[in-house]
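Write out the bound-state structure for 3-isopropylmalic acid.
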Amino acid sequence: MPKIAVVPGDGIGPEVIHEALRVLSFLAPDVTTEAFDLGADRYLRDGTTMPPEVMHRFGTEFDAVLLGALGDPRVPSNVHAKDILLGSRFQLDLYINFRPCKLLDARYCPLKDKTEADVDFVVFRENTEGIYMGVGGQFKRGTADEIAVEEEINTRKGVERIIRAAFEWAVKNGKTKVCMSDKANAMRHGHDLWQRVFKLVAAEYPGIKASHLYVDVLAMRLVQAPQDFQVIVTNNLFGDILTDIGAALQGGIGLASSGNIHPGKAALFEPVHGSAPDIAGQGIANPLASILTVGMMLTYLGRPELEARVQAAVQGCLKSGQVTRELGGTLTTREAADAVIARL
Ligand code: NAD
Ligand code: IPM
Ligand code: MN
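---
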């Protein structure tokens, strides 16, 4: 019986996770869940961000963690999100941030004349290093002479394992192309390492066409010709940015799902979107990203047939216009989830 830790989090997080859990219990009633009161409310109440014993339990007791979103205007430092979300990614060593970008209905694609076959790629975002590590500091803060340093960490081991994960996934899923993206023309130390490691790993996969694009060009190409891409592998920051472009291509941030995974060890699943303070509490957030995220989690738990059913049901809703407002529909968060469950 799989055991899932649930962190609804802030803003629309609890709203969309509530609906995603209804889908989960409908499809997989044997899965048990335990909710964790972590987020801005808890932090403002008692100062707790991420208790070490909870982190330990996430890594040892649960098959996966399901998270809504973290971020609240009342906590401008975002310290709780850093400790809970980035803390989980780093401390549980969830080195793969797996973010599929798949258009389920052409009408929601912002590009003209693109079909569903044109937007179907996945991004392997490095998730444990890069510029997210918080290495750096401020000197003479608040003065005219202030200096702020943010260091980017790239390790041979970290770069190699994410690149290898991308190739392995390509092979297992019948894909033929992997594109690595960096900015080695300007970032000559860390991204030179990416270049060299990519060539070495690519040589082990002669059946896969390995290519490289600088990230500025890739951002452009994703908009001009998304059909050219199957698997993209890149660093933490570039992966963050490229997957918001990918979210837009697949119909919007309300549809984008993700998994933070260390194969064989631990995993945390979450929609790509944030806590959306601008629409929180109104019952209008799109729950489909979280529902698709539950689908991804079910595949991780060894039940890919259930993810296929989730995708088909979501696609059916999109095709018949049973969607929330930001996609041009009229449904509330709850009604959008009801429509998915009715199809299931
Ligand atoms: P956001 O993704 O929360 O919102 C961006 C825009 O998309 C907003 O207009 C919002 O209304 C809309 N949107 C997002 N999700 C939606 C949904 N499910 N349905 C309909 N519309 C949706 O990004 P932001 O505004 O930059 O960030 C808000 C807060 O969330 C910040 O504190 C940020 O740090 C945090 N954040 C957290 C995560 C996470 O926990 N994984 C991810 C991204 C941002
Ligand atoms: C994401 C988010 C996070 C990130 C933020 C909230 C730190 O944007 O998961 O895409 O940058 O990784
Ligand atoms: Mn992001």
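---
The radius of gyration is 20 Å.
The domain at 1-95+262-344 is CATH 3.40.718.10 (Isopropylmalate Dehydrogenase).
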